[in-house]
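Retro notes (design track)

What went well: tokenization of the new backbones is finally stable.
What didn't: we kept losing track of which sequence belonged to which structure.
Fix going forward: every design gets posted as structure first, then sequence, in one message. First example under the new rule, 166 residues:
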């Protein structure tokens, strides 16, 4: 079932799949399942709507065992939903910009009217946007600047400029 789910995700849906190790012979019942940073059952994992997925990963190795303990020794299947990824990057960026936090709070956490620019490159509005923004480590962020100088009548309310440490 897990192999089928991952194949469907890869072929049919715009999902970012990162795998440190491809596990062709892994027994799915031996995997640890994680959805939005919470350990779950295989059934809960399989119940996630593919349209809600921001990223899916299958990880195995010493780093995974160090993070998840013996439960992760046979590999970890991880799903991050779009809703979770968006909330995570919003919280992360809010730590660097009070203006960003204030605007989000006053607009019900809706950032659809923002343009995000990371190191001078605009992040395109597509299904992997939340993954790209969420994957920036907090300790690699140098600054987050909230710029509200968009032309009047623009559908874009603000530009969020993120500069990462080199």
């Amino acid at each position: 079932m897990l192999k089928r789910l991952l194949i469907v995700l890869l072929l049919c849906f715009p999902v970012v799949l990162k795998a440190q190790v491809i596990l062709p012979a892994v027994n799915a019942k031996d995997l640890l399942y994680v959805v939005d940073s919470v350990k779950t059952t295989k059934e809960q994992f399989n119940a996630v709507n593919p349209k809600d997925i921001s990223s899916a990963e299958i990880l195995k190795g010493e780093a995974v065992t160090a993070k998840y303990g013996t439960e992760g020794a046979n590999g970890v299947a991880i799903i991050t939903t779009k809703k979770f990824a968006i909330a995570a990057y919003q919280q992360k960026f809010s730590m660097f910009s009070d203006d960003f936090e204030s605007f989000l709070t006053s607009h019900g956490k809706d950032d659809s009217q923002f343009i995000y620019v990371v190191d001078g490159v605009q992040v395109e509005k597509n299904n992997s946007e939340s993954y790209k923004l969420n994957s920036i480590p907090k300790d690699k962020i140098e600054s987050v600047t909230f710029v509200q100088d968009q032309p009047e009548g623009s559908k874009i309310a603000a530009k969020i400029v993120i500069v990462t440490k080199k």
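Added context from the reviewer: The chain has two domains: 2-81, 84-164.
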